[in-house]
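Continuing from the previous page of notes. For each protein in this section, the sequence appears first, followed by its structure tokens. Read the first protein now.
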Amino acid sequence: MHGKEITRRQFIKSTAALAGTVFLSCHAQQASGPKLKRTAVDQVTLGKTGLKLSRLGVGTGSIGGSIQRGLGPDKFNRLIRYAYEQGITYIDTAEAYKTHEMVREAIKGLPREKLFIQSKMSGVPEKPLEVLDRYRRELNVDYIDSLLVHCGVSRNWDEKRKRLLDAFEEAKQKKIIRAHGISCHSLPASARAAQLDWVDVNLVRINPQGAHIDTPAERWDARSDISHVPAVMEQIKKMRKKHHGIIGMKLVGNGDFTKPEDREKSIRFAMQCGLLDAVVIGFKSPAEIDEAILRINRALAERPNGWPGP
């Protein structure tokens, strides 16, 4: 036989190997399938909690809730209903916003199991579980999906507010709440939150312009700028490594981003950083909801596989 000729056995062997390669390649392509189209109103998983919420939430605490309270009951109800009709099921509130009762009226008749309601507790009340029972009455719900320690600023907030942490855990075991966490307003507080297994959910201040985000000062109102952004992102990355749920806020700079290009820049940054599960924005009109959905959808389309990421 000539040296360049191959035997029948060799031919069959090489053909089988080629066929296997083609099969695996095709199988991989089928498995990966078409790229999913991500949107602002997708139901997403909140970290390791397993809880679902819409990627975009409607906030009720703009300027301490005064913006939403200023709408009056009818306009606020229509706003929440409009958000729900678009697919937004996450509603963010707090005792400090004085919007619990407004939320209660706005969600009347909506299926409770489809809503994700997050509230927050300020200070260190003597009997946190009794306060939580009042929250549930004010909201007219059997349970609150996520309850946060409100406005943590100290580096040892978990020690100073241990009564809350213990009560929240007890409430979680009783299924009065489904997850607990913190809303941080300083870098020392965020750094501590990133370390704690107790934290299920982090509500973090984030925008690329550095407006109203965390700083090294243990004050919620410390002046911030773009120089603080890298340190904020570092802590959020640590939270992600711990598989915490992470929700971004201050996407419109506490209302400072009156220029459309600023809102576009901020929303694109939040959507494409790959570190957030969801975001919340305080709205005052259906038009603002429409704009946010449009900008989020556009940002996600630019990086279709970028949410969430390492």
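Done with the first. The second protein uses the same format. Note its length before scrolling.
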Amino acid sequence: MSPQFKFAALPPLSLYIHLPWCERKCPYCDFNSHEKRVDPSTTLRTSLDERRYVRALITDLDQDLPRIWGRPVVSVFIGGGTPSLFSPEALDELFSALRARLAIRPDAEVTLEANPGSSEYVKFKEFRAIGINRLSIGVQSFNDASLKRLGRIHGRKEALRAAECAHEAGFDNFNLDLMYGLPEQSLKDALEDLHTAFALEPRHLSHYQLTLEPNTLFHQHPPPLPDDDLIGDMQTRCQAELAGHGYENYEVSAYAQKGARCKHNLNYWQFGDYLGIGAGAHGKITGAQQQTITRLWKLKQPHDYMDKSETPARIGGENTLTPADAAFEFMLNALRLTEGVPLRLFTEHTGLPLSFIEQSLKYAEQRGLVEWNVQGIRPTEQGQRYLNDLTELFLPPTTGAAPQSPQPARAGR
């Protein structure tokens, strides 16, 4: 008989809130986002109605409360889309409702994703006053030509001003998203983007390669990208520059100064729990009484979600993990962390004995992909290089395929 879950305590709990609208859909974006204004030729109802959407979020949360009642919330992340399109008044209404219903810890990290549009960064001081204490700014590049090729609506000037406004508004901790391997990008361009970012003094940088994801315009019509050798040079040189400027690579694409690691994403990568509200939002909840781990996700289309926010139909799907699924998902996430995780976290956050993955760990160790002992489990340099091969060693043996798992937020996410 397969081992069942036995939780001595529940893992930390985070809250994710999805605000799905943006000014314009970027050609590389595969997130659940919808343009704020609707093309009259379409029949999709995706126009932004922030007051109605905030009410739907609160109603959604009310119905989810029995799943997490009384548990402290260690972090809140508002992602999108472009959440900074919402007015400070709408977010203030939302946060008043959150505080009335949830035990949000006084030291909780509260992050809002923002883009460098001028209509957004003028709101930064008001966002700070609401209680948001961290920003994640989607710069992607400081090169005007690169930004145009990416379909971004901002330019270098707006990107620089957004970071300056973050400092002026009192955000001593903010993230900048940067990509490399951009269409027609040179090594010099990639390094210049990093050096510009360093001068703006963010405490956290998300630095990741542009990939052509399915169901995106770039996937359908691929732009001219640098070749693999050049992309490899970009990665190597940029990682050296980041390290030289005091940014520690603590996860595949996340770099932080001391004390500035993203707590919300760390909870994902350490297989913590998270409640998700909003269109398309995912959640993972451990049930103390039931001794179960449940994944659930909300309806993806914003107006479908709002129409059904008062009913169980707002839930797009629900899945109870098997022990094999939980063990795989733990390792899938934990092995993204360059320092790995304490050994005890496997049992604490999965409710399973270490023996459940011991054979796979031994095999991965023999192949030089992991190091593990009584202190912890961590990928070796070779394991980081061949991360997909490493994580496949922990796949559930009866399926041969990975269970569905929502993508952790970007390093700023």
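What the second structure shows: The longest strand covers residues 103-114. The chain has 16 helices and 17 strands. We return to this in next week's lecture.
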